[in-house]
């Protein structure tokens, strides 16, 4: 699954160049992005623009916005089987912008948090779905992050991981003409592209959001790579 992630690279020029953006808002570095909080996404209907979505999909047909329907993750293998996702795969796909995510490894001493990122520590995009609910309380844009079985690296920590798209598959995911073409872009990221490092348990609390959360945890914690 994916329940926490970061977006610490907020330089407008880097974001503009990496994702071919024409409109970039001023962003603050975020070290502990949690469900229900705003996330930065590129919608298939608004390419070239970063749009804020609430993390936790609320379908257009939901009666309330604060509801059990708010789904933070969607399993890649069953997207076309779930009513909440089936139509969105055809019409409402997005890229969720990030530069690392967290996962927790079960150990004899409890769960240990790890930060997982590209080896070059650069920006990337999760595959996501979005929806728009309109009601008496206004319009709500919300989204979910798609997950896949973990690759060899992440499997040492957890059995699932978010779908990190390649630059080529980002375009396919956003621009595909039909659901089957879009789904073909969804694959677990190659383990050889990633590294992981144990970090402070401060990340466990949604209230904590500082650069201290991404520092390697003492004593010296070697990076995991394959």
Task: Quickly describe the structure.
With 226 residues, the chain is mostly beta strands. The chain is built from 4 helices and 13 strands. The model has no long low-confidence stretch (mean pLDDT 93).
The CATH topology turns out to be: hypothetical protein yedk fold
Radius of gyration from the alpha-carbon trace, in angstroms = 17 Å
For the record, the CATH class is Alpha Beta
Known CATH architecture: Alpha-Beta Complex
Report the β-strand fraction as a percent range.
25-35%
Percent in helix: 10-25%
The strand line-up of the biggest sheet is 2-1-7-8-13
Distance between the termini: 21 Å
* Number of individual domains: 1
What is the helix tally?
A: 4
Structural class estimated from helices and strands: mainly beta
Question: What is the averaged pLDDT score?
Answer: 93
What does this molecule look like?
With 226 residues, this protein is mainly β. Helices cover 14% and strands 35% of the residues. It has a single domain (5-214), classed as SOS response associated peptidase-like (hypothetical protein yedk fold), CATH 3.90.1680. Strands 2-1-7-8-13 form a 5-stranded antiparallel β-sheet, with no helix packed on it. Strands 3-4-10-9-6 form a 5-stranded mixed β-barrel. A hairpin with a 2-residue loop joins strand 7 and strand 8 (110-118). The radius of gyration is 17 Å and the shape is globular. The relative contact order is 0.18.
């Amino acid at each position: 699954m994916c329940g926490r992630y970061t977006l610490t690279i907020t330089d407008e020029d880097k974001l503009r160049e990496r994702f071919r953006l024409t409109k970039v808002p001023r962003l603050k570095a975020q070290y502990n992005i949690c469900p229900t909080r705003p996330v930065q996404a590129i919608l298939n209907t608004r390419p070239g623009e970063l749009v804020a979505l609430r993390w936790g999909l609320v379908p257009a047909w939901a009666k309330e916005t604060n509801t059990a329907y708010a789904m933070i993750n969607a399993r890649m293998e069953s997207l076309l089987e779930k009513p909440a996702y089936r139509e969105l795969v055809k019409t409402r796909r997005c890229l969720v912008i990030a530069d690392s995510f967290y996962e927790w490894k079960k150990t004899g001493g409890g769960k240990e948090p790890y930060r997982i990122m590209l080896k070059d520590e650069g920006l990337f995009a999760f595959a996501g779905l979005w929806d728009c609910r309109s009601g008496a309380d206004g319009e709500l844009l919300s989204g979910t992050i798609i997950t896949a079985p973990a690759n060899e690296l992440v499997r040492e920590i957890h059995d699932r991981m978010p779908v990190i798209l390649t630059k080529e598959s980002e375009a396919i995911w956003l621009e595909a003409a039909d659901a089957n073409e879009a789904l073909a872009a969804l694959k677990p990221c190659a383990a050889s592209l990633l590294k992981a490092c144990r970090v402070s348990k401060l990340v466990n609390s949604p209230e904590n959001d500082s650069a201290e959360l991404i520092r390697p945890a003492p004593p010296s914690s070697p990076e995991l790579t394959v």
